[in-house]
Amino acid sequence: MTEPHTDAADETAAETTTTVPVPSPASMPRAARPRPPAGAPAAAPTETGSPGARTGGAPAEDPHGRVDDDGNVYVRTSTGERLVGQFPGGDKAAALAFYRGRYDGLVVEVELIEQRLRAGHVAPDDAAGIEKKLRTSISEAQAVGDLEALAARLDALLPLIAARRQERKAERAAKVAAAQDSKIAIAAEAEKIAQGSDWRQGANRMRQLLDDWKALPRIDKPTDDALWHRFSSARTTYTRRRKQHFGDLNERREAARVVKEKLADEAEALASSTDWGATARGYRELMQKWKAAGGAHKDVDDALWARFRGAQDTFFAARDAENTKLDEEFAANAVVKREILGAADKLLPVTDAKTARESFRQLADRWDAAGKVPRDQMKDLEGRFKKVEQAIRGADDDSWRQSNPEGRARAADTVAKLEQSLAGLRADLEKAEAAGNDRKAADARAGIEARQAWLDQAKQALTDFS
Predict the structure, then answer these.
(1) Domain range enclosing 302
(2) 329 belongs to a structural domain
(3) Residues 138 and 256 in one domain
(4) 245 within domain boundaries
(5) Are residues 166 and 219 in the same domain?
(6) What is the pLDDT along the chain (466 residues), one digit of tens a residue?
């Protein structure tokens, strides 16, 4: 605050302001008269009822205002004095202090908007509104102080407000540009998803893109509308294709359900069959149809598969049990054939072709009578027995040639026996195939193959005697 003027300065100021007409408080309407501050002492009535005499009778002043003897308070401006209030009943220094306090309040308000604006804590438009209100308050202020300096400080804020407006405008433009780029990217991604077939993740991504779109600010209406049209069309296309896909899928699943229910019924009808071969082939055919039917709804498909597989398991468990019995029987046959094979091995090396031949013929009869062996042992046993036979035949070739009638008779007898054995095996094969017994049929085929090889050799030997 500026220090008070000297008395001489006060007198000069009084002289310079006497030309400014000041309305008398008594002539002002009651509602317009300035009021003393709360708690100010009331004017002591004189004998005529007028305010009491002022201290010293001299006006109290400062560079920006004064108080006259009637308690009227004036503020000085470059255009002259202006009445700002009345302070009857108190001393002039108190009056000036009171009205300077009001000025200090305006200073605080101006400083506050300056700080907030420079710190960026107030929007430019809000700052402009505050500045306008403060300017009005200053121009009409009932206060004593350098009001014009305060107005000048407000003037200094105008370029800053304009600059802040430009910054905000640039920020908004940048945000709009970024929003436009984001919306273009969203529309492009949605269009790509719309042409794909990722029905689960695609739907989730479309929902996320919609949320992202809603979070972005609007841009200019034509561009915003055009991009929204692209995005919305892509979502509609994807939704329509997705519904069509699942509609078709449901139809296929329903068709698969009908087929698989029928296959499960057929499988259950075969479960108790003892026609092992034919039924096993039937199950293979049913399995091929099951795979070709496609998938039903998972819970339905699982339930139907449990029925189908359960029927299969029942049948094959019964067949395996039967085969286990046969394997036990065949295992006993294998023991017999190993004993025969041991006796045949003792015929080697051949020293007496005739004796070895006669002994092997007896062993061969016992071999055929022993019956079938487990398939995993058949190849080994048949191969070893055939090896002994070939060794004996090789040693006997010369004697056959030397004794043509007898050799021919033996060869003819061997051929006859082998043909008889083959006929029996072929009959067994026909029975096994008719019964659907794959294991017996396979054993019969293996025996036929071995006997046929022996027969071919026997026939060749018989031919040698011709």
Answers:
(1) 252-322
(2) no
(3) no
(4) no
(5) yes
(6) 333 333 333 333 333 333 333 333 333 333 333 444 443 433 333 222 333 333 333 345 689 999 988 889 999 999 999 999 998 877 888 889 999 999 999 999 999 999 999 988 889 989 999 999 999 999 999 999 999 999 999 999 999 999 988 988 898 889 899 999 999 999 999 999 999 999 889 999 999 999 999 999 988 999 999 999 999 999 999 999 999 998 988 988 889 989 989 999 999 998 899 888 899 999 899 999 899 988 888 899 999 999 989 999 998 999 888 877 777 778 888 888 888 888 888 888 888 888 888 888 888 988 888 888 887 888 888 898 888 888 888 876 656 565 566 767 777 888 888 888 888 888 888 888 888 888 888 888 888 888 888 888 888 877 766 6
My answer on whether 95 and 211 are in the same domain is no
Domain boundary among 212, 239, 266: 239
Which of 294, 322, 350 is where one domain is finished?
322
Would 1 be classed as within a structural domain?
no
Looking at the domain assignment, is residue 244 inside a domain? Answer: no
**Total domains present in the chain:** 4
Q: Do 388 and 413 belong to one domain? A: yes
Please write down the HEC assignment for all residues of the chain.
Answer: CCCCCCHHHHHHHHHHHCCCCCCCHHHCCHHHCCCCCCCCCCCCCCCCCCCCCCHHHCCEEECCEEECCCCEEEEEECCEEEEEEECCCCCHHHHHHHHHHHHHHHHHHHHHHHHHHHHCCCCHHHHHHHHHHHHHHHHCCCCCCCHHHHHHHHHHHHHHHHHHHHHHHHHHHHHHHHHHHHHHHHHHHHHHHHCCCCCCHHHHHHHHHHHHHHHCCCCCHHHHHHHHHHHHHHHHHHHHHHHHHHHHHHHHHHHHHHHHHHHHHHHHHHCCCCCHHHHHHHHHHHHHHHHHHCCCCHHHHHHHHHHHHHHHHHHHHHHHHHHHHHHHHHHHHHHHHHHHHHHHHCCCCCCCHHHHHHHHHHHHHHHHHHCCCCHHHHHHHHHHHHHHHHHHHHHHHHHHHHCHHHHHHHHHHHHHHHHHHHHHHHHHHHHHHHHCCHHHHHHHHHHHHHHHHHHHHHHHHHHHCC
